[in-house]
Amino acid sequence: MMPVLDRPIAKTAWQHEVNLHDGAALAPTDTRAPQDAGVPDAGAWQPAVQTMLAMQHLENDWDGFGAAAPSRAVPESAIGLAYCFHENGVPPPQRAAPGVSGSVILEWQDPDGTYAEGEIDRPLHAEVMVIEPGKPARQWTLPTE
Asked: In the chain, helix, strand, coil percent, each to 5?
């Protein structure tokens, strides 16, 4: 079943989550397991949050084809949005990946052919698209309020 992504996300709530989960780089003396270090519990979103945290360490040309690295603020914003979605009951994406223009992309795919994507392209801004079989594509931006 496809997640409901068209939940209201207020800019203030998103900013609050960014402030709580700032994606700070792990200290070399951190003794916790790498998958748990520096990231409060994100439940089923934990793997996606860890992937976004790692994106903060990408450098330009990370793909060997000239891709731009995201600024530190973009993955931080994506992590904040992940916690907003988590708190709103949205299941985690099947894939979190860096975009070639410095963005963070979250993708959901459903067995019925439905595809959803959220692209965090700058701090506190995301473009969302949902394509369902037999229906026109829907697009909107976050935050909604």
From this structure: 25, 20, 50
CA-wise closest residue to 68 among 99, 95, 97 = 99
Listed by start position, the domains of the chain span 11-25+33-142
Instruction: Please write the tens of the pLDDT for every residue from 26-44.
Output: 333 343 444 444 556 788 9
Which residues touch 130 (CB under 8 Å, ≥6 apart)?
2, 5, 6, 114, 115, 116, 137, 138, 139
Q: Residue 127: phi, psi to the nearest 5?
A: -100, 130
More confident call, 99 vs 1: 99
| Helix (H) / strand (E) containing 18 | helix 11-20
Report the DSSP beta bridge partners of residue 98.
Answer: 104
Q: Any idea which residue has 């200290």 for tokens?
A: 27
Within 8 A by CB and 6+ apart from 70, the residues are 55, 56, 58, 98, 99, 102, 103, 104
Query: Can you tell me which residue has the tokens 């988590």?
Result: 86
